[in-house]
Structure prediction request, 180 residues.
Amino acid sequence: MPSRFVICLSCLYPVLIYFGGRYLSPQILALVLLLLVLGRRTSAFGVRTSPWSVAGGLVLALLAIWLKSALFLKLYPVLVNGSMLVIFASSLWYPPTIAERIARLRTPDLPDFVVTYTRKVTRAWCVFFLGNALVALWTALWLSDRVWFIYNGVIAYILAGAMFAGEWVTRRRVLRGYQG
Prediction:
């Protein structure tokens, strides 16, 4: 599990880039990205961080330093969502799925219909991460810094929270039907 510092830094990343960009150079802000990338040994759900994800983060930080451009720092949410998409999608091909792993933490012996449900949930998260990555890319490339911050620092978190809460409520109903 990433340290609390890295988790906080990750959550505050859009705030730091947006407000820090007013006072600090992209080269200094790239150090925040370097801290994130190098401080993360595992990603969400205890899955080991991919070397490709680490390399991608390093490339973004180095490009921001070399080209003195904050654009590369704004692309980090695209990388994060893309990485999560790969993690979730690969679990569809190499089960158990991420959603099944999480469900088994509470209920180790899942019936087949719940395993089927967790596959659907994993697919739904894949769609979410793909959509979120595309919107993050759109905001980074074509919209203002303010819109990038509002989406990536506020709206994306609200959407992820709503998705998680909706899935949690649905999962409770599905499991309640299983437990009688």
